[in-house]
Amino acid sequence: MPKKVFITGASGCVGHYLIEMLLAKTDYELYLLMRDRRKLQIDVRDRANVHIIEDSMQNIHKYQDLLRTMELVVSTAAGWGGEEAFVVNRDQTIALFSFLDPQVCERAIYFSTASILDSHNQIIPEAGAIGTAYIASKHACLEKLESSTIRDRLITVFPTLVFGGAVDKPYSHLSRGLKDILKYVPYARFLKTDGSLHFVHAYDISQIVTHLLTSNLEVRSPARLVLGMQRLTVQDLIAQFCEYLNIKVGWQFDLQPWLVDAVIKLFRIEVAAWDRFCIAQRHFTYDVVSPETFGLTSKYPRLANLLAETSKK
């Protein structure tokens, strides 16, 4: 019998890549929760193993009986701000995982965010204390899930900066804004600052998640996987952007943290506590995994791969 997998946030950027890959590589029965089926850009009309559930996470309790039959669950749904963030990201997500039957469920994958972790992949208390509604709700949810009845089969994935999208898939927030970001590169190339980050493409995320759903990989609780490519410094980022635009980097002004703080004070710029914390932190780097970690091959290992895709839009 094909295994059953329940996927929330199925009509989103990552959801599209994951559904496409699961259909290509497995015979799983897919149960796709989405608020608006018209947003699904994959033609599943002739797919008897695809079941679309047009509803929101707020009504997840209506599917308790169905969830108890699921061997696999992937929760990508997210509320981005305000009270909805706590309702979806904390309350309803905790409810979703509580409905799973420990005697049936084999693997549960929860999408969190790398923003709530430090460089050693440990939860930072500031995420819960001063984080935005999105950050604080993700922080609260993880603490509950890692002490739940399915914690021994729970894998939490923490995407770093997510890119992705195509003519037949919705774009991530970053990919939608990438062309606008490029407009500022001719000015940003004159600035130098200390900082670093990771990125990951939705295609490579789906590769990893598909592997987790189809392999017998043993996990140690709490299982935390931060998804990202190799570390990029801000200077690497600017240099690669400039190379793509065929402009020279040249002389750079060293933008020290104290100067940023002085500008904020001088112009009386309102900065939230979480934003100030992030400005001070500067390095958003982690102990990451990529498709290569699991013997797979990244399709977007470098920024150049992303920029090449941008030029095709």
List the helices and strands and how they pair.
Elements: E1 4-8, H1 13-25, E2 29-34, E3 50-54, H2 64-67, E4 72-75, H3 82-98, E5 107-111, H4 125-130, H5 133-145, E6 154-159, E7 161-163, H6 173-188, E8 191-192, E9 196-197, E10 199-201, H7 202-214, E11 223-227, E12 232-233, H8 234-245, E13 253-254, H9 257-266, H10 273-281, E14 288-289, H11 303-310
InterPro entries: NAD(P)-bd_dom, NAD(P)-bd_dom_sf, NAD(P)-dependent_oxidoreduct
Domain NAD(P)-binding: 9-150
Protein name: NAD(P)-dependent oxidoreductase
Count of individual domains = 2
Report how far the terminal alpha carbons are from each other.
41 Å
**Shape call:** globular
CATH superfamily of the largest domain: NAD(P)-binding Rossmann-like Domain
- For the largest beta sheet, what order do the strands appear in spatially? 3-2-1-4-5-6-11-14
Query: What is the makeup of the main sheet?
Result: 8 strands, parallel
The overall average pLDDT, rounded, is 92
SSE order: EHEEHEHEHHEEHEEEHEEHEHHEH
**Unreliable residue stretches:** none
Rg calc: 20 Å
- CATH C-level class of the largest domain: Alpha Beta
Please report the number of helical segments: 11
What is the fold-level CATH name, i.e. the topology of the largest domain?
Rossmann fold
- Beta-strand content: 15-25%
The assigned structural class equals: alpha/beta
By CATH, the architecture of the largest domain is named 3-Layer(aba) Sandwich
> How many β-strand runs?
14
Fraction of residues in helix? 25-40%
What does it look like?
It is a single chain. It is built from 11 helices and 14 strands. It is α/β, with parallel strands linked by helices. It has an 8-stranded parallel sheet with strand order 3-2-1-4-5-6-11-14, with helices on one face. Strands 7-10 form a two-stranded parallel ribbon. Strands 8-13 form a two-stranded parallel sheet. Strand 4, helix 3 (82-98) and strand 5 (107-111) form a beta-alpha-beta unit. The mean pLDDT is 92. Residues 9-150 form the NAD(P)-binding domain. This is NAD(P)-dependent oxidoreductase.
